[in-house]
Fold each of these.
Amino acid sequence: MRAEHIYSLYEDIREKDYVIASYYMELFPREDPYEKAKKFAVGQTIGTWVPVPGITEKMREKYMGKVIQIYDIPPADLSVQMEKEETWPYIIQIAYPIEHFQKQFPLLLTTLLGNDASTSAQAKLVDLQLPKKLLQEFSGPRFGIQGLRSLCAVESRPMLLNMIKPCTGFTPDVGAKIFYETALGGVDFIKDDELLGNPYYCPLEERIRAYEKASEAAYERSGKKTIYIPNITDNAGRLLDNGRRAASAGARMVMVNFAAVGYSMLQALTEALEIPVFGHYAGSGPLYEGRDTGISSPLAVGKLPRLLGADGVMINTPYGGYPLKRQKYLRTHHELSLPLGHIKPALTTVGGGVNPGFAGKLVKDLGRDIMLAPGGAVQGHPMGAAAGVRAMLQAIEAQEKGISIDEAAKEHEELKKAVELWGYLPV
């Protein structure tokens, strides 16, 4: 096997039709990273762990994965510099020809993480670069940030989402009352909790009709139209039908938990529906929480759902009790929002313990093109859900005007109560 069949420089491969995947891997000092990378590249494309007949030089040249680079961490060039380390960490970059998967996303994931990656090689996918030809195969968000701004009639400030609490256990009429009281505060969107799907006691279509009536009633009093986002998450045989039935019942946007139904079902849903699709990440932790295996969180809940068409995506923050690294949260937002060819930006929606005391910090971190998603801080506000919404909007307004939350709290009773109860993060 010639060297150019298995190795390539980045400058030579970047303009060709290859996906470049970067993996974190730890090896024992006696293990050769080049041999490991070579076996990985072959095993993920044309070969297996033992030599097999039938592999030709032409197959190697056209269809075999290529080792692009191996980075030592730390960048030690002398073995004596690593003598005391039990394992030696590396970033290994491998390029895969897109002919193997093209737009078939499950096969792309299998190439990236199946076979060797899940057996003989323990590796974590930390970055993924797509060539222009493959990127053009993905539609991305149909509506994206500007489409969602138009939907809720919010021109420039951060948008606001609430999820109905309690999560489950109520009938559509009870949920509609909660919706109505919350919508009176002027919230932009209200969604189902991710735990509520289509149970017998709160059927999807009946719930949509009841909540849409509540939205209209609140609009007549407040002048603000609140958009309801029903959760249509279900098995593969019912998901698309749920989406169509939701739209027919009056829903103007739907939510799906892509971590539960799978990325390819998210793609099928966004391609089938003509209304925005909101992607939830619930249960995605096992994809990225492993230090040495899985997918990094900016890919798992950032780049991948955006490529597959989610118009908005719920993500976590380092501030609500979940030990997420700040750099991962920032990078996830970048994967959702920075320019990516023809792919529209998706709306970063931050949840997980969000309250008015977080608003300034989140906006400073991520900018104005985001959606804040408090749950209990709205439904559990001591003055009621509408007051919880107003407290969030007051905190957003203070950030927009450059006013400290302490000063704003002196002017607004709702915000004052929230700050007294939950505190605030310095901006």
Amino acid sequence: MHRTQAHRMPPTLRRVRLTIAAIVVGALAGTLGLASALSATAATVDPGAWYVLVNRKSDKVLDVQGHATTDGSPLVQATRTDSTSQQFRLVAAGDGSYELLHRASGKVVDLWEWSTADGATFRLYRDLDGANQRFRLVDQSGYVRLVNQHSGKVVQVAGASTADGAAVVQGTDTKSYHQQWALVKVGSGTAPTSSAPPTTTPTTPPATGSWPSATGQQKVSSTIAVSGTFDGRLVRYYGISSGGQDESQPPMFQLSDGAVLKNVILGSGAGDGVHCTGTCTLQNVWWEDVEEDAATLKGSSPSQVMTVDGGGARSASDKVFQHNGPGTFVIKNFQATDIGKLYRSCGNCSKQYARTVVVQGVTVTVPAKSLVGINPNLGDRATLSGITVVGDTSRKVAICEEYRGVTSGEPTKVASGPSAACGYDPAAVVYR
């Protein structure tokens, strides 16, 4: 039976919580449009506010199918109307998690049948204080991922759909856009919509620690080939892929030898980011949510140079920059937040080369695992200077790691720290 595992709270505590909920419902009735427009994070949840949950990929909101209020009613996504069927209050459970109280029904969001399988549905049910009715909020770039306490999986839109009526289910956490939700107080605007690009090009990049605002949006259905100079005027390009870390995703941009890509924001569904097939330059390019990789140097000439100057990347569960071809990769005046690795020379490409990486004036904010990974046995060399690491009080982020590169199988990590191959001064690394 569905409820046999639920742990009921003490009757007195339960009555107190329900009484508080009733008071808040009465006090806030009819106040749509008066609530703050601020979006909440895990640290800023307002216990007295009603929220709509806006999906980052679809811009649609969490709703109940058919606006039903009965036990077992499934959750879906829908166009935002701010009806009470789309409003939820986050009720603290006392252990750092929250229940999602549905305004129209007074019921809570429930992981149905205590399932731990991907694709299991979320529905309304009376509050039994079960672990399957509790969610932990994990912040990501102004949005949150909702992790169910029972299953450890996250709330997502089935199939990464953007259609009204798409089911809301659970899935393994891949940090994909369809798993991210903005907690927006009732009465405020939805996620940004498309707008025309400006007639002038921004020339001054934002200061370290800040990120540019998109001047417009453009959905991409196939890879954009660039020869010469492409100035994006800080338009957000999105939608070539469905998100996640799947291998062999198409790149958003493919740069031919000598190409320049500048003033571009890569948003949701950026696929494999940017591919360079020879010498290329990226100026003031920003990745809002890295998927497979942010950018990859391919090509076949030892004289080719890929230069990344300015810009930033965040939410890269693995690598930001991948170096598959030969030549030199230069990363300077760059910032990265919430990443696995900043740069990796391919450890197991079927054709290997000696590669060089130069890192200058880069700021990395934790969480992060390492800055640079190279294969000295293949002739790789790294030079790093002007490195700043933010938030790493224990100094666990590796600055430069050495691997034994191979042409098949998996590379083996052999060393970490300064060496003849990893050229940097540990005393010059700034921690703040």
